[in-house]
Amino acid sequence: MWEALTDIPLETPENAEEYIAEPMTLHGISFPPGITRTELWHWFDEHHPQGVAYLLYDYPKEKLR
């Protein structure tokens, strides 16, 4: 599911946080339009056993290629 986020475009308005403009569904879980990158990271932090820090920094990079 984390890998699928690499293909999701983010809107970057001036003086605001990046957000997802379109609703999206990842592995059957729906996320609303307007969810920010930080909110999405919090969701992963709550639902991934090792947390978002692992996914961001320690996740095997060869899986993303």
Descriptors:
2 helices, 65 residues, alpha+beta, two-stranded antiparallel ribbon
Q: What summary fits the major beta sheet?
A: 2 strands, antiparallel
Helical content stands at 25-40%
Question: What is the average of the pLDDT values?
Answer: 85
Low-confidence stretches: none
Q: Total helix count?
A: 2
Note the run of SSEs as H and E: EEHH
Radius of gyration, taken over Cα atoms and rounded to an integer in Å = 12 Å
As a percent range, the share of strand residues is 5-15%
Number of domains: 1
Order of adjacent strands in the largest pleated sheet: 1-2
Number of strand elements: 2
Give a description of the structure.
A hairpin with a 2-residue loop joins β1 (24-26) and β2 (29-31). It contains two helices and two strands. It is α+β, with helices and mostly antiparallel strands and 65 residues long. The protein has helices spanning 37-47, 51-58; strands at residues 24-26, 29-31. The longest helix has 11 residues, at 37-47. The two termini are 15 Å apart.
Spell out the blueprint of helices and strands.
Blueprint: E1 24-26, E2 29-31, H1 37-47, H2 51-58
Antiparallel strand pairs: 1-2
Précis, in short:
29% of the residues lie in helices and 9% in strands.
